[in-house]
Structures are given as structure tokens and as C-alpha cells.
Design brief:
By secondary structure, the protein is mainly alpha-helical. The chain is built from 13 helices and 2 strands. The protein has a two-stranded antiparallel sheet with strand order 1-2. Strand 1 (253-255) and strand 2 form a beta hairpin. The N and C termini lie far apart (45 Å). The mean pLDDT is 97. The structure holds benzoyl coenzyme A. Benzoyl coenzyme A binds next to helix 2, helix 6 and helix 9. Benzoyl coenzyme A binds at residues 40-41, 44-45, 48-49, 52, 79, 110, 112-113, 132-133, 136, 139, 200-204, 209-212, 215, 225, 275.
Length: 317
């Protein structure tokens, strides 16, 4: 389908609003492409939160104490909530939730690469909180200043909750780091498996990121993929050192001049393979979401029937 061509004058006025730092609200005029880009990015984000519940959900019944189980349950419930806020914010752009969920279940929509890896040991739960939520916060802190109002406002609350997620994860890792040799081995093994996929969460390097330029011009993104990845690396290396965990990168070195930690090459073939649907758990994740959707059919039916009944009662009154 060909894209609607926007009025050049309106387009210029829109860019001027963006450049002055205005916040765009749902009823404001916006270029079709801005709307489409937001729907793509926000719905991928919402799907990531929802699919992101699955790897951690795998450990609820095996949490080693009541305290750890309560924390994990609260975290996973927060993620369901984040998905709901972001789906609601996406609906303000004129797309229905049914359509968005349909795109996830059909395999058409993407969600974050990171949730296509398995959670093999309890240490993975700590490392997901520390690294995965840690990476998400670095990304989402700048999205709290994005140009689209409903997305920015959803991000403010989400970032507060993500901070708790990250802290509980790091505390779990710090506890295991002080534990038995077997616990330390489990922790190191989890870091070895999650480090590189966490760096990939920021997306392809700037030169290979087709959407970045446009998104930066419209202040949807405030920083590039590589800038955010570097910020995350610089924040995380000292945290790893503080708990005596090795970063699995023989090329890692500190550059005194730039004050950056420099890393070895990222395996982008692995990244593209995973986001095209061929990661270790893609099929399992989609099957779990399809089952949850089918199992929830009666809830949607009941909610629809209730809404219709109320509407009829209002019309009769
Ligand atoms: N995974 O031009 P690019 C969480 C795709 S969940 C998969 O750089 P863009 C949590 C990209 O979509 C947090 N695909 O794209 C939940 C594009 O493909 P299409 C998730 C990726 O949009 C539970 C293509 O690669 N956070 O915190 O400029 C438990 C080219 O990329 C990924 C968000 O979603 C990826 N990692 O930048 C714990 C944040 N990266 O659409 C934690 C919101 C890229 O052309 N999203 N692709 O087919 C963003 O900030 C940006 O969309 C991205 C990508 C930085 C992810």
C-alpha cells in the first residue's frame, strides 16, 4: 500500500515543534510516518514486556525462599502492567489492541531479542534483573523524554519500577557471589550467557540501524543505539568488578582518553538470526503466548458481554 503524502507546510511546522522541544499529543497533527514509526516501536516494546514474563515465569515455582518468590512475582506482575500501559499508549495512535496482539501471535511483529534465550539456573533470574533490566533502564530513561506524550508518560512510571527490578537482580547476584563455589560458578555461567545478548538489546550498530536517523530527527529516540550501549557498558563493568564477576570478553579494555570501556566485536549474525525467529526459544515463546491468548478467550467474551449489557442498560435509561 502506498503511504499518504503529508502536506509539506504541515511537515515543516511539525518539525519546528519537535525542534523547540514540544510534546506531541494524540490529537495533534503528525506525519503518517511518525505515527507508523511510533506504532512499530511502541508495540514491539509492549510485546517485549509481555513475552519478557515467560523466561522469569519459568522460575516462580522453584524460587529458593518465600522472599525471593514474592520479589519475582511482583517483578513479573510489573512487566504485565508495563505491557498494558504501552499497549494503551499505542492505541492513542489509532490502532486497536486486537490488531497489535494479532501481529505478535502471527509472528509478524518483533519483540526484544533477549527473551529468546532460556533461563537455565536460578542465577539467570539475578542476571536478568541486573543486566537485562539494567540495559532496559538505560534505554528507557531517554524514552521518558521522547517527543510523543503518552509514551513519555508511560516510561516515567515504568522506569521507577525497572529500577527496583535492577536492584533486586544485582542484590541476588551479589548474594550468590558471596556464596558457595557452586553458587559463584552458576553466577559466572549466567553472566557468560547473558552478557552479549544484553548488549544486543540496544539494536544494531548505528551504521546498520535503518530507523535511527528518522527517530532521532523526530526526538522519538534521544540517543543512538551505540551511545546507549556504551553508557550501559560503562555503568556495568564497575558493578561486575565490585562482585568479582568476570565479563566474558577477552578484548575488554579501558580507554583513558575517552573514559570508555571498549569491547570486542558483537556477533551480529546471532542477533539477526534471533530477531528473524530462529533463536533458541522463539518458537516456544510464541507457542506460550498463543496458548495464553486462547485460554483467555472466555475472559474477553465475558468482558464484551458485560460491556454490551451496560451499554443497553444506559440506552434504555
Ligand atoms: N530485539 O533501526 P533499528 C524489558 C530490530 S523489555 C529485536 O535500530 P529502532 C523487560 C528493529 O525493530 C524492553 N529486534 O530499530 C521486560 C528493526 O526491525 P523492523 C524492550 C530489534 O527501532 C521483561 C531492526 O532491528 N525495550 O525491559 O531504531 C523483563 C533495525 O533496528 C532489536 C524496548 O522495546 C532488539 N533488541 O531501534 C525484563 C525499547 N533492536 O522493525 C525487562 C523501545 C532492533 O524494521 N525500543 N531490532 O522490522 C527501542 O528503543 C528501539 O526500537 C530499539 C531499536 C533500540 C530496540
Amino acid at each position: 500500500m502506498s503511504e499518504r503524502v503529508d502536506d509539506p507546510e504541515k511537515l515543516e511546522a511539525f518539525q519546528a515543534r519537535i525542534d523547540r522541544g514540544d510534546i506531541i499529543e494524540p490529537r495533534d497533527w503528525m506525519p503518517e510516518r511518525y505515527r507508523k514509526q511510533l506504532i512499530r516501536m511502541m508495540s514491539q516494546h509492549a510485546h517485549s514486556e509481555v513475552v519478557g514474563m515467560l523466561p522469569e515465569g519459568n522460575w516462580i515455582t522453584r524460587a529458593p525462599s518465600l522472599r525471593r518468590k514474592l520479589i519475582l512475582l511482583a517483578k513479573i506482575q510489573d512487566e504485565a502492567g508495563h505491557g498494558q500501559y504501552i499497549y494503551s499508549a499505542t492505541e492513542t495512535l489509532g490502532v486497536s489492541r486486537d490488531e497489535l496482539v494479532g501481529q505478535l501471535l502471527s509472528g509478524k511483529a518483533k519483540y526484544s531479542n533477549i527473551f529468546n534465550y532460556p533461563t537455565l539456573t536460578w542465577a539467570d533470574i539475578g542476571v536478568i534483573g541486573w543486566l537485562v533490566d539494567g540495559a532496559a533502564i538505560v534505554n528507557q530513561t531517554q524514552l521518558a523524554h521522547t517527543s510523543y506524550g503518552p509514551y513519555a508518560r508511560a516510561m516515567i512510571r515504568i522506569c521507577k519500577e525497572e529500577n527496583f527490578h535492577k536492584k533486586q537482580g544485582y542484590e541476588l547476584c551479589a548474594t550468590m557471589a558471596k556464596g558457595t563455589p557452586e553458587q559463584r560458578r552458576m553466577l559466572q555461567d549466567a553472566v557468560n550467557r547473558w552478557w552479549w545478548p544484553s548488549l544486543m538489546m540496544f539494536g544494531p550498530s548505528d551504521k546498520d540501524s535503518p530507523h535511527s536517523q528518522e527517530l532521532l530527527r523526530w526526538r522519538v529516540k534521544r540517543k543512538s543505539n551505540d551511545e546507549l550501549r556504551q553508557r550501559f557498558i560503562n555503568l556495568t563493568i564497575p558493578q561486575a568488578r565490585a562482585i568479582n564477576v568476570e565479563i566474558p570478553d577477552p578484548d575488554l579494555k579501558y580507554n583513558e582518553e575517552t573514559k570508555n570501556w571498549e569491547i570486542g566485536p558483537i556477533n551480529w549474525d546471532e542477533f539477526f538470526n534471533v530477531i528473524r525467529g530462529n533463536g533458541p526459544c522463539n518458537r516456544e515463546r510464541l507457542a506460550a503466548r498463543r496458548k495464553a491468548h486462547a485460554d483467555g478467550a472466555w475472559v474477553r467474551e465475558a468482558a464484551r458481554a458485560y460491556a454490551e449489557k451496560r451499554l443497553k442498560a444506559r440506552q434504555a435509561a
